[in-house]
Design a protein that fits this description.
This protein is of the alpha/beta class and 511 residues long. The protein is built from 20 helices and 9 strands.
């Protein structure tokens, strides 16, 4: 009788997949913990532990349902620490006649698995992950040969296609997005809520990771690990978000506080990106909850969240497949500066970066404005090489898988793609950070000062960024005002600003 071996990757923990409809004695599933996946970038320790713990739980649940699972742990004596060698060994041992895998979401693994199949002398097959709302190349097909992809156009297309928050052909509330309403600084008008956390003991897993010599960074309390590691917990997190956080999510989604890391964010990204829960389930639940609670939840809160899931997330994946592998080499602004050492410990006098990086190191998570407009913004203003920025973001965040990380980082955050994703660089001075947070009140630097002692580095670096990139950027109509202001600036004022910026750029490690 023909025997099939099916590979399940660490971000393919979709228990609703059609593969698992019923057990089949002639189908074996294989899951692998391999050093290969620990070494292509250095990961946050919480990211490693979350993946391994969630994978092990998934294998356990499949086994309980009657499926046969071969699970190769990182410290197994027979582990070759490489996908191909492990697969070939199991194929031989089990007399496998057919090998199947689900489409990987990373270009690197997609190429590797195609190569492995070419080297096997048995039948092979590929299945969809049955997770996303779009196919790999839907975004590319939607925009055709356009050089720039406008997310808003794709988002409206998705709303129409899925008939979400629509009244006939028109958007509910007669507006496609409520982004302008969702940019409020936290004002204390509603009480803050803590995100739901769990209490897993992963200390044995961490001891194994340490014993195997895996290099990592970041901090963890392994006896009280907070992340959802099962589908059941992912569903519980979604319910908690709807009940406690959704009513204020949109209003304060861009706000930042130094003593509260997540405000009203769901922190569902890890569970969603490893496919324990699907975008369809999330959106369906959020919309259902909204329909039942319109007296306490406004359309703006719901639209802001739905846009992230059916718009931004699907859009970024589509850009990834449309542009890889060239995308990972793009450096439109030719940034060459090495990443400062305090990205690895948070020890900088700039309080916003101290808090956002420190939070990332402590929790393996930060929300989108902390990632984009504080850490990403500084990285771009300082001219840090996109390769360094990519590696840091891909490693530090628990939800970072390359398809979603590199598009947000190299594209939106660093403008290294020259505007494929963002129509302008997301550059901001200290005024923006002060407007959206309470970081500046507690800082060594003065956010109001552009030059002189304790002048906030964001201010002079902001103008230096536009000055040094004038050739590439000044024709961009969305940032025309920056160049109008630069031209109107008094020569002596401009000289002082550039000198201040150069002083900071020469000693980024000392900031």
């Amino acid at each position: 009788m023909a025997k099939t071996l099916r590979l399940i990757l660490g971000d393919q923990l979709n228990s609703n997949h059609s593969w698992y409809t019923k057990p089949n004695a002639n189908v074996i599933y294989i899951m692998l913990e391999v050093m290969q996946e620990q070494q292509y970038v250095m990961h946050h320790v919480q990211k490693i532990l979350a993946f391994f713990a969630a994978m092990r739980n998934f294998a356990h649940q499949l086994t309980k349902k009657g499926h046969r699972v071969i699970y190769i742990k990182l410290d197994d004596a027979s582990n070759a620490q490489d996908f191909e060698q492990n697969l070939k060994r199991i194929i031989g041992q089990e007399n496998i006649t057919r090998f199947e895998y689900q489409l990987p979401d990373e270009y690197r693994l997609d190429e590797q698995l195609k190569s492995i199949c070419n080297n096997l002398n048995i039948e092979t097959g590929v299945a969809d992950t049955e997770h996303f709302l779009t196919e790999r190349f839907d975004v590319q097909n939607f925009f055709g040969d356009k050089k720039r992809y406008l997310m808003e156009s794709f988002y409206r297309h998705m709303r129409n296609k899925l008939h979400i928050l629509m009244q006939g052909d028109d958007p509910m509330g007669n507006r496609w997005n409520f982004d302008a309403d969702n940019r409020k600084k936290y004002d204390g008008k509603v009480p803050l809520e803590e995100a739901i956390t769990y209490n897993h003991d992963v200390s044995e897993l961490k001891a194994m990771v340490d014993r195997m010599g895996v290099k990592y960074f970041g901090n963890v309390d392994a006896k009280h690990f907070p992340w959802p590691l099962s589908r059941q917990e992912a569903l519980k997190s979604l319910q908690y978000f709807c009940d406690n956080l959704l009513p204020s999510f949109g209003t304060y989604e861009d706000a930042m506080l130094q003593e509260h890391i997540s405000l009203f964010h769901s922190r569902m990204s890890f569970a969603q990106n490893v496919k324990m829960i699907s975008p369809v389930e999330i959106v369906t639940k959020v919309l259902s909850h909204y329909e039942q609670n319109k007296d306490t939840i406004t359309l703006a809160q719901v639209e802001g969240y739905v846009r992230q899931v059916i718009g931004w997330r699907e859009f970024m994946r589509g850009v990834y497949w449309a542009q890889m592998p060239a995308y990972q080499e793009m450096n439109f602004l030719n940034h060459q500066t090495q990443i400062p050492h305090w990205y690895w410990d948070g020890n900088t006098k700039m309080n916003c970066l101290h808090k956002c990086i420190g939070q990332s190191l402590d929790h393996a998570w930060a929300h989108h404005i902390q990632r984009l407009m504080v850490i990403g913004n500084f990285s771009m203003l300082a001219g840090i090489h996109p390769n360094d920025v990519d590696a840091w973001y891909l490693g530090v965040y628990i939800d970072a898988i390359q398809w979603v990380e590199i598009t947000n980082t190299r594209g939106m955050s660093q403008f290294a793609d020259g505007g494929i994703i963002g129509s302008k660089p997301y550059a901001a001075s200290a005024a923006y950070i002060n407007r959206m947070s309470d970081y500046c009140k507690h800082c060594h630097y003065d956010y109001k000062k552009k030059v002189g002692d304790k002048a906030c580095p964001f201010n002079s670096l902001y103008w230096n960024f536009f000055e040094r990139n004038a050739e590439e950027l000044q024709s961009n109509p969305r940032i025309g005002m920056a160049y109008v202001t630069l031209k109107k600036m008094k020569p002596e004022e401009k000289v002082l600003l550039m000198e201040q910026a150069e002083k900071y750029l020469e000693d980024l490690n000392g900031l």
